[in-house]
Structures are given as structure tokens and as C-alpha cells.
Fold each of these.
Amino acid sequence: MSERIALYYDDASGERYEEKAFKKLGRPYTKIGPEKVTLQDLRSFDVVFIPGAFPLKRHGKGGFRPFLRFLRRLVENYGET
């Protein structure tokens, strides 16, 4: 069974690079929105990603590709548990 990953999402943010990275890797994730962020809801996930928490694209150090590399490292280190 794979870990339960949540990606916070609201209608204002649209599709973010985090969501594109999950799709590219084929990693299952659950989108959660403002109505599903109670402590009990959050405890049902192993990992919660909040868009914008990863470094913004500044001087080529943030954005889609670095986040994709981060996810790949996460998968390599923790595998398909």
C-alpha cells in the first residue's frame, strides 16, 4: 500500500507545478480543499503538500523541475510502502 499524499488545492490556485509533477511521476495523491483541512482530516494523510511552500522560481532554483526532482528523491528514499 502506498503512502497517502495530499495536495492542498483551492479554486483560485488553478493547476500548479506540484500537481503536474505528481501526474508526471504517476504518484497517487488526493486533492484537499479549504473544506477538508480539519486536524482529523489532515491526520489521515502521511504527507501534505501546500502549494507555494516549495521554493518559488528564483534564479532557477525553484519551480516545476526542482519539485519533480524532490518527488523522485522522495520515491527513491521511501519507495512504494
Amino acid sequence: MDDRPTPIDPDQVERRFAALLEKAGLPRFTSSFHDTETDLLEVSWDHGFTIHIDLTRSDMAPIDDMERAAILELPYQCEDHEPIHVTVPGSADDPRSVASIPGVVVHRGPPLHPDDLMVYEGIPVTSPSRTLIDLAEVMTADELRAAFGRAREIGLLDPDALRASRARVEWRPSLAMLDEVIEEFCG
């Protein structure tokens, strides 16, 4: 016996959501798809943004600021934190468009060396050494020193891993400052 709630008619939900968009002064989605296995209605815009609507819930949440920005293809800055930066393999000149994600800044670059990556709670992230190197691009020398100091304080400053990661990094304007800070902390 199936204990799932009975889904609402997807056509009815689609009309309700379209009316919600119109009331908010937002453009209508360009396609929709009803996933019968999950009872989700997926509504998408041409630029790649998709909203998933749970057909087993009778209530429909209002469109929030993050969704509004994504629908309008505008940058969205969360009020309580800076955007999350992610690096993906590839070239910035790649003509394929990737849907933007509100609150996320995507950087493209060559694939990272396996030693510059780790998995934390199931999420692939850069190693502490590679993170310190990448921070040199967005911090002043004093801020970078503070980051190195904190890494040392919590046991994440590994001079050998840091030097190996530094040797692999591509040229960037911050390397002279980075090399100074590495020398200060790692000798």
C-alpha cells in the first residue's frame, strides 16, 4: 500500500504557478515536466533555471529573492554571507552555457591535481594547502597571514603539502605575495 499523499493535478499547479509569476511581474517559464515517480513538477526557463514544485503539497510558497534573481538572470547576494566560490574544470572560453546558481560564483580552470583535492562530509573541496594558495587571489597580505596563522593553529598548515601545491599552481598576480607568506610561515 502506498502511503504517499495524492498529488495535485500538475496542470492545475502549473496554472497557479504561472499566475503567481504574473502577479510578481516575472516572466513565465518556457517548459514544464511532470515527474510521475517523484510527484514533482519541474518548470524551467530558457537560460537553464529550474524550480521543482512538490505536487503532494497543497500550499505554494511565494517566490523568494533568490528565485526572483535566478528567473531574471540577475546576480544574487545573500544578505548573511558572501557568495560561495566553486572551481570546475574547463575554460572560461567554453561556448556552452552553464546555468548560474544564485549565491554561487563559478570559476573555470585546468583540472586540479588529486593532491589538491579532498572530500569533506561527502563534498569534494580543495585541500587546505590549495585553499590557502587560492585565498592569495582575494586577500591582502595581512589577511592571508591571518589565514595561514589560523591554519597553523588548527593543525591544517602542512609545509610540504603547501610547497607541493604551490609548485603546481598556474601563474597568477598574487604569487609574489603568496611566496612571501609561505616563507614566513614555513621557512
Amino acid sequence: FHPDETCMVGQAGDVGVFNGHCWHAGGLNRTDKPRRAILAHYLRVDIPRPGDRRQHLSPDVRAKMTLRELEILGLDEKQYGVRMKMAVSNMFKNLRTKLPV
């Protein structure tokens, strides 16, 4: 660890929010209780997300989710296809502006 590090310490139910580009690490759970975390990140709609997250959602859970919940998580089929098309289009547009033609 770095000598100038800042440790984020919390109580059960606390939330820590930070920029994921900062160096970060998790500490050892020194309790006999499980620790849970929700890790979230946000991307512009035209930036491709790493991998296809839909494969990690069990059919049982997916069947219980509303269309709005799927949309918010970026897991609905229609928006997923639109986002991929936008991401590919944006990628080629960026290549054209950066590479000499």
C-alpha cells in the first residue's frame, strides 16, 4: 500500500462512492459475517460494455424482471442491439478522424 493512502472504513449498511480510476483495493474481512458489495459503473450509451452481461443472468431472475429493470441495467435485447450498433459506428468514426486517409 502507499504511505499516503486514505482508508475508507464504514459500518454495516454504509456506502462508499469513488472514481474507479483511482487505485483501490479491498481489505480483509475480519468478521465472521459475509461481506457483500455492489460494484457499478456507468458508461455513455455509445461506449461498448466489456463482454455480454446478459449471459450471467439466470433465466429465473430474468423472467421476474420488468422491461424497465432490464432497460436500466442495459440487458434488454432491443437496447443492447442499438447500443452495439452505436458503439461500432462510433468506433469507426473515431478511427476515421484519427487515421490519415
